[in-house]
Amino acid sequence: MSRDYEQFPDDDNGNVLWQMHEDGDDLDEAHEIEYSIAFTDQEQAERCALFLLNEEQKISLFQDDDSGVTEWIITIYVYMEPAYADIVDLEEWFTKIANQFQGEYDGWGCMAYVYDDEDEEENYPV
Q1: CATH of the domain at 106
Q2: Does residue 109 fall inside a structural domain?
Q3: Beta strand extents in 2-86 (DSSP E only)
Q4: Per-block average pLDDT, block size 10, for the chain (126 residues)?
Q5: Fewest CB within 10 angstroms: 3, 8, 16, 115, which?
Q6: How many domains does the chain contain in total?
């Protein structure tokens, strides 16, 4: 099957969605997509987390020391069909929110379920 560049544009998001499609993932089914915002300041992370909760978003907040630099990571869980335009819209919204609280939008990812002869799970981070 040739790639439909209107559905799967030639950028990071389009490439990940195309790869998911090529791997057999059903993009017409809802997935729990995880969007991340990173902070160097705990107070700003907590303020942003409260803002997102007030916006009725499902989130988690944790401290990450793995990179040698302490960061606070907010993960926003959105249950949605992984459509390119919707992902781009949410990325823009989360980037705006991240900037408002001196954080940095850090991408999205989701578990993909591929059903072949054997059930397999793959993780697609962007």
Answers
A1: 3.30.70.3450
A2: yes
A3: 31-39, 58-64, 71-80
A4: 93 96 93 97 98 98 89 98 98 98 97 62 68
A5: 115
A6: 1
pLDDT of residue 29: 93
Q: Specify which residues 108 forms β-bridges with.
A: 35
DSSP 40: S
pTM (2 decimals)? Answer: 0.87
pLDDT in tens, 13-29: 999 999 999 999 999 99
* Residue 9 located in a structural domain: no
What would the two tokens of residue 72 be? 């606070």
Does residue 59 belong to any structural domain of this protein? yes
Query: Which residue, chain included where needed, has tokens 């926003």?
Result: 76
Which range marks the domain in which residue 57 is found?
31-125
Residue where the block lists tokens 């560049």: 5
Can you tell me which residue has the tokens 């992902």?
A: 87
- Is residue 103 in a domain? yes
Asked if 16 contacts 110 with a C-beta cutoff of 8 angstroms, the reply is: no
Residue 69's pLDDT is: 87
